[in-house]
């Protein structure tokens, strides 16, 4: 299943962690800066943040949400169940490239790197994965983007959350 991509107008804003949660919960992506600000206001309410906490950076630099924040948002939106498979305390963290080789077919994940988060969807075959972030969907075909020196492929995975979808109401 190919998911909607982040609009071009919002790609410059750092909300990768929140975007990964939107993908995981199967929610509609914001289509404008005003809708992004509305979404971030809701996120502030979920986290019980004070009025000035994100005000200075909204919406420019709001992407860095932690593993507990991600789990809190997933619980709030209630579109899926989450299971933490790896945290930054675990020994011998794999790089993103190594981790992608170990995924199971037909699964979805949220992956946290040092300063970035992805939503990962694996198709019917292990090699049919897609990484979703503000820049769109990345597959094996555009590995050059992921290969750049210092880019995502070489970064160590800090946290992995496996996403399991709940049955939809009215579905057989």
Give an overview in words:
This protein is an alpha+beta fold and 172 residues long. It has 5 helices and 6 strands. The chain has one domain: Alpha-Beta Complex (Cathepsin B, Chain A). It is 27% helix and 19% strand. A 6-stranded antiparallel sheet has the order 1-6-2-3-4-5. A hairpin with a 2-residue loop joins β4 and β5 (136-138). Mean pLDDT is 84; it is low at 57-61.
What layout of secondary structure does this protein have?
Elements: H1 16-24, H2 33-47, H3 67-77, E1 80-86, H4 96-101, E2 108-112, E3 117-122, E4 129-133, E5 136-138, H5 143-147, E6 159-165
Antiparallel strand pairs: 1-6, 2-3, 2-6, 3-4, 4-5
Strand order of the largest sheet: 1-6-2-3-4-5
Tally the helices: what do you get? 5
Sheet-strand content, in percent, reads 15-25%
CATH class bucket: Alpha Beta
Inertia-based shape:
globular
Round the Cα radius of gyration to an integer and report it: 16 Å
Terminal-residue CA separation: 19 Å
Range of helix content? 25-40%
Category by helix and strand content: alpha+beta
Sequence stretches where pLDDT stays below 50 over 5 or more residues:
57-61
* Biggest sheet architecture: 6 strands, antiparallel
Number of strands: 6
Query: What is the N-to-C succession of helices and strands?
Result: HHHEHEEEEHE
CATH architecture: Alpha-Beta Complex
Rounded mean pLDDT is 84
CATH fold descriptor: Cathepsin B, Chain A
Number of domains: 1
């Amino acid at each position: 299943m190919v998911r909607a991509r982040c609009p071009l107008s919002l790609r410059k804003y750092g909300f990768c962690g929140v975007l990964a949660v939107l993908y995981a919960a199967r929610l509609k992506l914001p289509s404008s800066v005003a809708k992004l600000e509305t979404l971030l206001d809701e996120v502030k309410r979920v986290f019980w943040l004070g009025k000035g906490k994100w005000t200075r950076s909204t919406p420019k630099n709001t992407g860095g949400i932690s593993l507990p924040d991600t789990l809190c948002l997933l619980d709030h939106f209630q579109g899926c169940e989450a299971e933490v498979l790896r945290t930054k305390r675990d020994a011998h963290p794999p790089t993103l490239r190594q981790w992608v080789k170990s995924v199971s077919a037909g699964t979805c994940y949220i992956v946290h790197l040092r300063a970035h988060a992805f939503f990962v969807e694996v198709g019917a075959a292990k090699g049919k994965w897609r990484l979703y972030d503000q820049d769109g969907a990345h597959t094996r075909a555009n590995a050059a983007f992921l290969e750049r020196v210092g880019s995502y492929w070489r970064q160590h995975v800090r946290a992995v959350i496996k996403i399991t979808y709940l049955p939809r109401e009215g579905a057989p």
